[in-house]
Design goal:
- This protein has 542 residues and is of the alpha/beta class.
- The protein folds into 4 domains: 85 residues, Arginyl tRNA synthetase N-terminal domain (Gyrase A, domain 2, 2-Layer Sandwich), CATH 3.30.1360.70; 138 residues, Isoleucyl-tRNA Synthetase, Domain 1; 158 residues, Rossmann fold (3-Layer(aba) Sandwich); 76 residues, no CATH class.
- Helix content is 49%, strand content 13%.
- It contains 21 helices and 14 strands.
- It has a 5-stranded parallel sheet with strand order 6-5-4-10-11.
- The radius of gyration is 29 Å and the shape is globular.
């Protein structure tokens, strides 16, 4: 529906050129009495045309070449809203398109030929993936899915560092637990890795090597073994979520290939860096930021900003049209500096889009849950998967804006009722599948021959929601907002359940029954397509 109106408004620009100067949008009115779609274009043109908005609204209507088989009525409401009423015949045409395209309905070739890179998770191999990492993983993968649906060729990337203090502490932690296994009395530092997974790695080394490693450097076999074991578990956890990264990029590569030294040289040549107190500072105050920042400490160790700038330069050098970074809230302070540094050395930082996700709190019955007894003071994504299932995990992590702190309610997640949005959606799909199996006994079939019979208000309401799917996918993808798709699917399921209660299929006149069956089948296709983008299954039986 919106596509039709966008096209009509585009044609009207020849009569009202000022339409080019305003953002054209169409909203669904809160009341069905105000039509199917509404536009505020007239009010946006008031200052430009210096006319009464109602008069402008009438001019717009007069300039639109609207097909009477599509639009049955237009009206001006309130201060100058233009309301559009679509014919029931046009509404029902969406069924034919859905049944024709099936699993491809909702896909777009708008960005065909464009390449995107989505970097997400990117946890260093120091421990299992927590629920915070899980939110990052699920949203990142869903954003990648969305981009693929609108035509992008997408590469999923994981960036990690297996050097530095964190990894030294990891090696030390394993060795200390190993020495404990040998019977030595150890005072284990509070800031070392506390989880039982460290003890398990130490025990593996003891079983394999006995006491032969007593005098080995912690950064040798202890660190290397821990890294391998932890990374194996990380990849396994991601696979369980249906996530497979194409690229694993090690920060060390930037040093090995001379990218860090090259970047420092560029900063110096461009007079963008200076030395102070034995450290190297980046002139961020001259690059739009509030103050200069250290990029190399007086110890010679780089801060996060330096390798991050080099890494983004490497990615852009690969020829991507779009880079997506999904970070935790601890990156709020650093990523603007990275973007400024990137722009300063000649890269188009507008190609980089950063998503910052907030924390996750697991609740059950109003109480904060601390499920993990084995891993340490956090809940792992594997534990959450075991508790509620992967479908629920993926949907729940997607259904809230990443900018919002998320409360993951276990009590709701476990319910087999309408209170659980995953159950609500999957039940709608399974219900339609069940109806399709039953009608075979009645020798009914899905038919598009009598769609004109779909005139009931709940039939029309459901048809109009189906019309919105393509735009919802496109908008969710372009704005990197997977939660918007969740909202749409819930609204679709709600519309279907209302239709199912008020419009019988079995026991109805044959032509009407088959038309309604076609509407139900189209709904099932769209639910399945939407859930597939989210990485959630669409069961045929529940």
């Amino acid at each position: 529906m919106k596509e039709y109106l966008y096209s009509a408004f585009k044609e009207a620009e020849s009569k009202i050129p000022q339409l080019k100067e305003i953002p054209i949008s169409f909203d669904i009115p809160k009341s069905i009495e105000h039509g199917d779609l509404s536009s505020n274009a007239a009010m946006l043109l008031t200052k430009i045309l210096k006319k009464n908005p109602k008069a402008i609204a009438q001019e717009i209507i007069d300039s639109l070449n609207l097909d009477s088989s599509v639009i049955v009525k237009t009206e001006i409401a309130g201060p100058g809203f233009i309301n559009f009423f679509f014919t029931s015949e046009y509404s029902s045409k969406i069924i034919k398109e859905i049944l024709d395209k099936k699993e491809n309905f909702g896909k777009s070739d708008k960005y065909l030929g464009k390449r995107a890179n989505v970097e997400f998770v990117s946890a260093n191999p120091t421990g299992p993936l927590t629920v915070g990492h899980g939110r990052n993983a699920v949203v990142g993968d869903t954003v990648a899915n969305l981009l693929e649906w609108i035509g992008y060729e997408v590469e999923r990337e994981y960036y990690f560092n297996n050097a530095g203090r964190q990894m030294r502490v990891l090696g030390d932690s394993v060795k200390l637990r190993y020495l404990e296994t040998l019977g030595e009395k150890i005072t284990f530092p509070e800031d070392y890795y506390q989880g039982d997974y460290i003890k398990e790695i130490a025990m593996q080394l003891f079983i394999k090597h006995g006491d032969e490693l007593r005098n080995e450097d912690p950064e040798s076999i202890f660190k290397d073994t821990a890294e391998q074991e932890i990374f194996f578990d990380i990849k396994k956890s991601l696979k369980n979520l249906g996530i497979n990264h194409k690229i694993f990029f090690n920060e060390n590569t930037l040093y090995e290939e001379g990218k860090i030294e090259e970047l420092l040289k560029i900063f110096k040549e461009k007079n963008l860096s200076y030395e102070k107190d034995g450290a190297i500072w980046l002139k961020l105050s001259e690059l739009g930021q509030t103050e200069d920042k250290v990029i190399v400490k007086n110890t010679g160790e780089p801060t996060y900003r330096l390798p991050d700038i080099a890494y983004h330069a490497v990615k852009l050098d690969r020829g991507y049209d779009l880079l997506i970074d999904l970070f935790g809230s601890d990156h709020n302070a650093t990523y603007p500096d990275v973007m400024a540094g990137l722009k300063a050395i000649g890269y188009d930082s507008s190609k980089v889009k950063v998503l910052i996700h907030q924390f996750v709190t697991i609740m059950d019955g109003g109480e904060v849950v601390k499920m993990s007894t084995r891993k340490a003071n956090y809940i792992t994504i594997d534990e959450l998967n075991e508790e509620v299932g992967i479908d629920v995990v993926r949907y729940f992590f997607n259904m809230r804006n990443v900018n919002s702190h998320m409360i993951f309610d276990l009590a709701v997640a476990k319910k087999q009722s309408d209170e659980n949005p995953v159950f609500y959606l999957q039940y709608a799909h399974a219900r339609i599948s069940s109806i399709l199996r039953r009608v075979q006994e009645e020798q009914l079939e899905v038919s598009i021959n009598h769609l004109d019979l779909l005139t009931h208000e709940d039939e029309q309401a459901l048809l109009k929601v189906l019309h919105n799917f393509k735009e919802e996918v496109l908008n969710s993808a372009e704005n990197l907002e997977s939660h918007k798709l969740c909202t749409y699917l819930y609204d679709l399921a709600s519309s279907y359940h209302r239709f199912n209660r008020s419009c019988r299929i079995l026991g109805t006149e044959r032509h009407l029954a088959e038309a309604r069956l076609a509407l139900a089948f189209a709904t099932m296709v769209v639910i399945k397509n939407g859930l597939s983008i989210l990485g959630v299954t669409a069961p045929e039986q529940m």
